[in-house]
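Handoff note, outgoing to incoming analyst
You'll be picking up this chain. Sequence as last confirmed:
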Amino acid sequence: MKDKNIKILIALHKQYEVPNSDIYLPVQVGVEGKEKILDYQPDNEGENISSKNPYYCELTALYWAWKNLKADYIGLAHYRRHFACNKIVPLNEEKKFKILLNRKQVEKILDTTDIILSKKRNYFIENLYNHYKHTMYIEPLDETRKIIKEKYPKYLKEFDRLHKRTSAHMFNMFIMKKELLDQYCEWLFSILFELEQRIDVTQYDAFHARFFGRVSELLLDIWINTNHLQYKEVRVIDMENVNWLKKGTAFLKAKFTGKKYGESF
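Most recent structure output, in case you need it:
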């Protein structure tokens, strides 16, 4: 049987270890207007939105792939966050690269589904809308609802479930059949480009101006669920050990004192 043509983008902005497999494609994001310093695929070739990287984050890599990359399946991961196959994750950061999803495992999953997603992240004590409201500025998300109501009303019911759901497939991580990716990107970027016309990013600092990437994390499930698409979940691991005490403290401050996040964790 012929191997599936699979490309999982790894969005990165600096030199970093990457998996040793032909299914992974490191993409340097935010290259436009800067010197290309990495021996990776730049996100500013062909049709692209590389210049929007300070606001769109890893989505500039996704847009580049949508418009320029030929593959049967396209995925998106991060240099510090990957799909993994093992249930037990080593604490040693170097050993983590040995348990990342490989070609054989990806192909086996894709034999039974067209979409691979990260395992859902559970927030337990509050719904997705309130979590966003406590940790980020809510205006971009509220404006997104207005855009969906105007442009894609059939998705509005699922959007409003953000007020009830306490879990989601986060991180903008997935692997999906190219035909589905085309449909998703057409829908996603039409919403984000309209949002860009309505929300002035200059009112936010550099951290909070990246709301396009954060809003899109919530839009993925809205698109998946509205279209009743089937998928398989795979574990995601952080390549660098997370300071959960620091992260948990920041969340509690956001929820109970109104102090927004000021950095990524």
